[in-house]
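W.,

You were right to be curious about this one. When I first looked at the sequence I had no strong expectations either way, so I just let the prediction run and decided to look at it fresh. Below is the sequence, 245 residues in total, followed by the output.
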Amino acid sequence: MKVLAKIGAFLILFVVFLVIRFPYDSLVERAVRQAELATNATILYRPSSAGPFGVKVKDLSITLSSGTSLSFDTARIFPTRGGLRATAYQGENEMKVNFSGASLQVELNDIKVKTGTDVLSGETVATGEINYAVRTREGGGTLRLVIPDVGALLPLPVGKAEMGSTFVIRNVGTPELPRTGVSAEIKLLGGNNNASANGTVTIEGQPPPQPPLLSGNLRYEFQNRRGSVRLSGTWDKPATQIIPR
């Protein structure tokens, strides 16, 4: 019995040693770089600690190819077979990510986003879900945005607004030159409920370093005015034309 006890104790210590020495941080780093390649995003962070319950990081920042960026105080990242799972925190609000290598799911809960464009001015707060198939470059989801200033999206003195959207992600490129486009059906309400707009906005990726193309048409009502807004140009330099009715 003493021999069995010693063997059991040795096995326990050996397992504990493997758990402690397992390269969790290296696996997470590899999965993060894989996610960067799949999404054309830039992901930066400072490792804090690593163990069987994941890798804790600080100062996580994610910048998309469009210039849109998200920043988080802390995050916990778990390596998985072929990818990673992560929960990132902005104060009490969180973003959850599940990346398998073949697919990406993102859940946002009141997350502050810097859009990197005058289409939506200021720091926008986003809530919603995104689903994306890496190989086909297709997907979709829903988003609710709280916008401090609608900016060029609706160039009227509306101020703060809320916008809901259902969007579709599609592949607009070729195998040799992959590109992604997003088409969104949006509804906007702002100006103390004195302004509303709805329509379609399309963003189409271009070969780097060119910014994504922007197009769209929105019907609006503001106070006693009605008309439409045509969007064109690029994501970072939008152009708008108001057509009164």
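Here's what jumped out at me. Confidence is low (pLDDT under 50) at residues 2-22. And, maybe more interesting for your project: The longest helix spans residues 2-21.

Coffee later to discuss?

I.
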